[in-house]
Amino acid sequence: MKMEMYCATQNNVLFCDYYKPTPRYPLSSYSQSSYMSSASSYSQSSFSPISSPYTPPSQTSESYTNGNDTVFKFPSVIQDQYIPTRQDLISAAIARAKSLIEIEEIGQRLISVDKRHVIQNNGQKTLLPTIKQEPKRGSELYIALPKACLEGFLYAIFSQFGTIHQIRLMMHFSGSNRGYGYVMMGSPMEAETALAKLNELSLPGIRGHLLVSMSTDNRTLFARNIPMDLSEEQLQIEFEKRVEGVKKVRVFNNTDDPTKNREFCFVIFKDHRSAALARRSMAESPFFINGVSIKIQWAESEPVFRHSVLMRMKQLHIRNMNAQTTEEDIWKILCQHVTPNNIVFIKKNNTCARIKFIRHEYADIVRKSLDGKRVHGINWIVMWDKIEGTKYECEGYFKRLSI
Questions:
Q1: What is the structure's pLDDT at 222?
Q2: I need a surface site. Which of 20, 23, 79, 307 has the fewest CB within 10 A?
Q3: Which of 158 and 57 is assigned the larger pLDDT?
Q4: pTM for the full model?
Q5: 384 neighbors 391 (Cβ within 8 angstroms)
Q6: pLDDT at 109 over 90
Q7: Residue 320 belongs to domain spanning
Q8: 110 φ, ψ to 5°?
Q9: Cα torsion for 126, 142, 174, 278, to the nearest 10°?
């Protein structure tokens, strides 16, 4: 059944009020007078839980006897009933809100119903996650918002598009926010949907917009002036002695002598917070390895592509290769993971190579299998080709402008 609805919050539970039921089929299958009496007895101001919405009276089944068997004759008209989802209820409640305060109240009640916890520490208010495992990279969004908005507003607005893993809101000691925050959705697809729907959204009651973009989510630090004779494993042990959250260390080998590095490395952490704390710790007090002072700074952040763009990418970029490695050597290694007819081309230039596959799935298999693989004495660094990803991002951008 097709019904109009609106939502309200009452006793910390979302309720749905159904009114003006409009059947998709004629009323000839049941008594129109009984239908009108039932509809008139239903009050628009009364709220009913989602578990028991208003349903018009249905036709009772008839039966007749055919020999020794009883045959049931079911009604010829079956009423379709619309069951709204949680996202539908939240969207309808927000649509009725006339100010940011009302949306904030809706969000606070949702936080209470979902039993989520909010803490504030060092000028940052955080909605704690319910599970320890973080979503995939590309699930976090950067939000520029009015200073009157708090975590309840963000929770209500973004709950329309999926599960919220975590909210981080930068706060002043006066109680207002600093104008920006971060929302981590449950998956990259949910983050992309929220980005498309909420960016430049007009807010009720004020002159302003909500600006949403993908978070850089930088998890990599750049370390220079490191000893040339240390390997990735040795450097990782040294960094783990000083800071926490180190995932791996990437070293670029010298082209003339592959046994030595180029006196710099990239330290990759499990999340952005661990990288930020490590940078602050090593900046406040000197960090030495084998008596040499190490200089630490943020590395240039890798682009975080939208999920729809990532699923189109078929090209890989391999760095830190031995100059003696040939395209034929690369082809033989690739054939250990995919069949030869799935490889489109291999182009090698000195210590780098670009490889294209016929499908995204084959490229992803090779990326996961060969990243960090030691070939001819050097560990390969395999990543998605930024040139291809930027091309698809620009195509999507101009397509949105044309719409």
A1: 92
A2: 20
A3: 158
A4: 0.59
A5: no
A6: yes
A7: 307-384
A8: -65, -40
A9: 60
Q: What is the pLDDT of residue 67?
A: 52
Domain count, the chain: 3
Nearest-5° angle of CA 161, CA 183, CA 365?
Answer: 80
316 and 291 inside one domain:
no
Sign of the CA dihedral running 31, 36, 41, 43: positive
Q: How far does Cα 227 stand from its chain's mean position?
A: 39
Confidence grade of residue 116 (pLDDT, cut at 50, 70, 90): very high
Structural tokens at position 70:
């009883």
Considering only CA atoms, which of 129, 112, 119, 238 is closest in space to residue 171? 119
Q: How far separated are the first and last CA of the chain, in Å rounded? A: 33
For residue 182, the cross-strand partners are: 142, 168
Residues 184 and 142 in one domain: yes
**Looking at residue 62, what is its pLDDT?**
47
Pair 187, 260 in one domain: no
Q: 373 and 321 in one domain? A: yes
Where do we find the tokens 């890798």? Answer: 302
CA dist., res. 331 & res. 309, Å (int): 26
**Closest by CA position to 51, among listed 94, 95, 18:** 18
- Does 17 map to a domain? no
Does 111 score more than 60 pLDDT?
yes
Asked whether residue 268 is domain-assigned, the answer is: yes
**Which whole-number Å values give the CA distances from 172 to 150, 169, 176, in the listed order?**
12, 10, 6
Q: Considering 185, 214, 243, which residue would you say is the last residue of a domain?
A: 214
Token match 């009108």: residue? 36
Whether the per-residue pLDDT at 326 is higher than 70: the answer is yes
Q: Is residue 247 part of a domain?
A: yes
- How many other CB atoms are found less than 10 A from the CB of residue 217? 19
Domain of 225: which CATH number? Answer: 3.30.70.330
* Same domain (yes/no): 236, 203: no
192 and 250, same domain (yes or no) = no
Which of 179, 196, 214 lies at the terminal end of a domain, its last residue? 214
> CB of 222 within 8 A of CB of 297?
yes
Residue 154 has pLDDT above 90, yes or no: yes
Residue 258 to residues 42, 311, 349, Cα–Cα distance (Å): 81, 35, 17
Question: Is residue 385 predicted with pLDDT exceeding 80?
Answer: yes
- pLDDT at position 12: 35
10: in domain: no
Mean pLDDT over 340-347 rounds to: 91
The encoded tokens of residue 244 equal 């926490």
Higher pLDDT, 137 or 75: 137
Find out whether 163 and 190 touch, Cβ atoms under 8 Å. yes
**202 and 187 housed in the same domain:** yes
